Amino acid sequence: MGYSKKFTLLWLVSLVAIAVVIYGLFVNLNRVIQPSLRQLEGLALIEPLSRTVQQAQLHRGLSAALLGGNAALRERRAAQEAQLAQALRVVAQSLPAALATGGALRLIQEDWERLRTQGLEWTAQENFAAHTRLIEQLQLFEISIADSYALVLDPEIATFYLIDTAIRRMPHALEYLGQLRAYGTVVLGQKSMTPSQTAKLHALQAQLDSALQELKVNIEKTGSHHPAVRASLLASYEGLAESARQVSDQVDSDLLSGLFAMPSTAFLNMATAEIDKGYTQLHGTLLPTARTLIELRIAQAQEALFWTVGGALLLFLLVVYLAVGSYYAIVGSIRSLVRSAHALAEGDLSRRVTLRTRDELSLVGDSVNRMADGFSAMLAERTQAQEVLAQSQRRLRAIIETALDAVVQIDAAGTITGWNVQAETIFGWSEAEALGRPLHETVIPPQYRVAHTEGMQRFLRGGEKSILNSRIEISGLHRSGHEFPIELTVTPITTAQGYEFSAFIRDITQKKQSEGLIWKQANFDALTGLPNRHMLFDRLGQEIKRAERARLPMALLYLDLDRFKEVNDTLGHRMGDLLLLEASRRISACVRDTDTVARMGGDEFIVILTELNEVKKIDGLAQNILDALAQPFKLEQESAFVTASIGITLYPHDATGMETLIQSADQAMYAAKNTGRNRFCYFTQAMQQAALSRLRMTNDLRGALAGEQFRVYYQPIMDLAAGRITKAEALVRWQHPTRGLVSPAEFVPLAEETGLILEIGDWVFRQAVHQAKQWRNRYDPQFQISVNMSPVQFHSAESPCQAWLAYMREQEVPGQAMVIEITEGLLLKEDAGVKNTLQQFHAAGVKIALDDFGTGYSSLSYLQKFDIDYLKIDQSFTGKLEPGSSALALCDTIIIMAHRLGMQVIAEGVETQAQRALLAAAGCNYGQGYLVSRPVPPEAFEALLRTDQAAQDADARAAQRTPL
What we know:
Alpha-Beta Plaits
């Protein structure tokens, strides 16, 4: 194939490659443009729905006022009803066929028709509830449309938060404001207010404040990711917040104060004007801003597509230009080579190839020219060979001088004849000083000189090479007189005069130091410098043999720091390391130099006491260690307090093997922990029996789940303001076939250690979900059940989160029905896996409760970093509640802090009416304790719900006899 065809093929291949690239870029950019266009379609459907919600909210307010006794609003309500009906028709006509014929719209239309025809025949409360349900269906339908058009899955974070604000957060805030308008209008119409209406107004104000806070958070997130829209969005929020303040202040000053001075129609008009301002911000700012951001993304993608195609075309033209130029350059060079080759073949040795290009063909031309120069080059071969030899000698000398090892040449008499620069560095002798000196007197210490000289002589006499051609490690002698480790290799060289020798010497001081460091790292703890587990077993074996020979007892102390993990988690690992270092110093100071102190790992230490003439001295030494560790630890600017638990075992009385000795001491140490910590305990056979019992319980625990031995009990949680049971905490119980009811304090730690807590926790959760579904259907649609989640479940490689959420969807149980209870210790490390799991629960609507708040080492910073819904005050505070007590002040502070952070508060351990009253007065939302009920089986709990339901029904009948 000629060059013409080759270059034509090159152009075609380039064209195809560029076309493929252009097509790929077009497809990728189109994946941005098409979904964005569909999002614009979805936004066009959202606004009519939002305006319909606005009309329905006003219709609810007018209906509530009319049913509350304000007959003057009948005509206005009828006009509003016509507007709402027209808005619903507009929505139905604007929707695509798939949505217009769907079940959601049909249910909305059916509810509206029922409300329109029967609404005035209902009580004010029923009419209000029907309106609220219709509005909720409209908002859910709006969210469904947003889902269908991928609005809630926008890949850009700023647009995502803005859309979420427009279709979720702001509509929710406006809905609570609308409900406040309806209730306020009714109350002002009747000029009186029942306790339930007062509670409802307070609840609506709290829900409105919470919705506004969530709206502000979303707007700030949007502004942080898209500063260009921050000012307009904040202005929208401030406008809505101001409207909410206007309405809420009027409710406080005129309704909740009992004045009832403002006419109901004036309040309705004032609230309607403020709500309309909010919808103006929604329709005039938020939705247009979202549309602008999406249109901007489409424009950017189209612009990128234009520049990409244009750039690719320019690239193709550049390739064509370069190919044409290369073609003419190559063909011209080939023709020049042909002409020169013909001239040389005809005997013209003066002819040389001349090319104007510097490419591979120029190399061919240079080769032809060198061939022509070959004859003249033969005349200078001898001179060139001599120069090469001289260069080789210089190169060899340069290699020797730059070698990293000392290179020393010596003659058969042992006299130094060569000495490189590295030899000067290693031994301190300059080349001028070393040349002519005997090698053994210059670099070899006196103790090795005789052996070196005799080895050289044996080789010269009989050819014995015992010290030659082998690498040996000996001490070298520095000019200053100090010795240092070297690696020596002596190689004989045969010459015309006999033998010469080359010695290669390397300074291995650093190598020896590294080997020593590696040995130390393998046998000693890097933090404390104490012997590690490996060295401990080595020394323990030696001490056992020594004790056996001396026939003297030996003691092994197993020491564990109490509550070290809390210090480590709270103050950080660096402070924990400082504490461990100081603890190792204190322990070492309490023992003899002949004893061994080792670190097993973590916060565990072992002390070996050898050659004990009196065993009773062990008590005093162990107590000295406890006293030393009980002193405060000063960790830079912090102070920490820890104690120790020590287990003691004796050789050969308790055990004779190393593993058995350590195991026995470990059991004694756990016995010391279980009896109160900060003490020492000797090993006994009873401990062995306790360990066996623990093992048996572990084995029984493994079969308990399959044997259906677990039960779930439920303890009620009461709404302190309403006096109703609205929640429950699920608590696992083990009905052992022979031991009876086993306390969770006994088997839950075992389950966590063995990992069985994963299966047990999963079973408890599923039982609780099943029970929540039944009780929500039978008694209270808002009923919640709390389930405790162990840190082991969070840190498991297979988190149960996704499986639990899938099971809830399968059972058709909403996320709001379940609450996950965690301890504050789980949040202290800010583990990414824990945070991700909590976010998944929160996204699914599952609530998060922080259990035992205020106990242990606490840090309030995590309350702002994690989405916590409920704060549970520990019963250690609740049990001490009295008027004017510090416990009450602390609970009051916790409740205020939680409410300001958007959390509700549950008090544990409520056992008396006095405690309930104090907590309710402090604003605590819920109470849990024996005052309501102990944890009971599901059947007994359902009986409590039936009793509570009967009381609610009686209240409802009483409420129907009075206007809203």
